[in-house]
Amino acid sequence: MAGKLRVAAVGTGFFSQFHFDAWSRVEGTELAAICSLDPASLTEVSAQYGISDTFDDFERMLDQVQPDLVDVITPPPTHCDFIKAALSRNIPVICQKPFTGTLENAMAMADLADETGTPVIVHENFRFQPWFGEMKRIIESGVLGDIYQARFCLRPGDGQGPRAYLDRQPYFQIMERFLVHETVIHLIDVFRFLFGEADSVLARLRRLNPAIAGEDSGVIILEHANSVQGLIDCNRLVDHVAENRRLTMGEMWIEAENSVLRLSGYGQLFQRPHGENDETEIKYDWRDHGYGGDCVYRLQSQIIRHFTDGSPLPNTARDYVSNLQIEEAVYLSNTENRLIDLT
User: Fold this and answer.
1) Average pLDDT for runs of 10 along the chain of length 343
2) Parallel, antiparallel, or unpaired for β 229-235 and 280-282?
3) Which of 28, 73, 197, 335 is a good FRET partner for 281, with 20 to 30 A between their CA atoms?
């Protein structure tokens, strides 16, 4: 594609602020139009970013603006219709998660993307948080030796009391599938990114806060094909040590032959050699901006690089189906109280 890529976005809810901020900084792009059914937020966003083309009808926006790329930042029930409309016009799509709401719909959208030859990318941004990228670099350097196991303790501390989640994302309270479907899916993707595909899953989930409909605590064990055992230990009611508890959402340890690698709630990485008691901080460059170490900007920049120089395209709909299959296995394991074979 020649010149700047013209991006059209639909949705002006809570998380859209991070998308719009990122698009305003991603080189080679122009946020050309926005669509929303909320007139107040539409006016606010268009004024903030100097966007003159605003719409309350998605297909009309596509036909009038003819963008190079569509960013879908709306709730899951709307995803399929928006994706179908864009793909029918051969317009690539970035789609927020939870992607389409169900595994069946996700597979159908992946099939449609393949049939039309038009990319659909899931806006799965956690793997683009800079600490996970640095962890990946350290793992691939071989300095840790054989990796035995890893655990992430999810502790955002935002789930207590009758007003849990209401001030930021109130629909969290009514999601029948909450913790895994909305949040842990990020970590499933991160574990696949760091340790490869998983062969089996075992899970126990529970609800601690009676004010919500879905689960908010649990443990998930992933057995990876390379023999790494992954533990995702989750509790949204409990917090962790951090100035901003939404920065990393928790803490992580990778335990290996030569040393232990630890992620703190401040985005710091520490390495402790085997047989020693003292940790050494691993310095690396990252920016505390926007959400999760500016991971939204990092993801959207990578997507644009694909269209400008052919760089690998992250988190296609087809690849993301694997995350959703693991999600389904987590819920099945909890319901049937057994290990689920993913092979």
Assistant:
1) 86 94 96 96 94 96 98 95 98 95 96 98 97 98 98 98 94 95 97 97 98 98 94 98 97 98 98 98 96 97 95 94 97 98 94
2) unpaired
3) 197
What does the CA dihedral 145, 223, 225, 310 come to, rounded to 10 degrees? -90
The two three-digit tokens of residue 296, written as one number = 């939204």
Q: How far apart are CA 34 and CA 313, in angstroms?
A: 24
Instruction: Check residue 220 and give left, alpha or beta (phi > 0: left; psi -120 to 50: alpha).
Output: beta
Extract the tokens encoding 227.
């023999």
Q: How many CA atoms lie within 13 A of 307 on its CB side?
A: 25
CB–CB of 70/93 below 8 Å? yes
CB 35 within 8 A of CB 7: no
Note the pLDDT of residue 2: 57
For 318, the token pair is 């087809």
Please give the DSSP secondary-structure letter assigned to residue 311: P
| Structure tokens belonging to residue 306 | 């694909």
Measured CA angle at 169 (ends 86, 107), to 5 deg: 35
Domains of the chain, earliest start first: 5-124+297-315 (3.40.50.720), 126-291+323-341 (3.30.360.10)
The CB-side HSE value for 2 (13 A sphere, CA atoms) comes to 0
Three-state SS at 272: strand
Cα distance between residue 165 and residue 177, in whole Å: 15
Q: What is the maximum span of the chain, computed from C-alpha positions, in angstroms?
A: 65
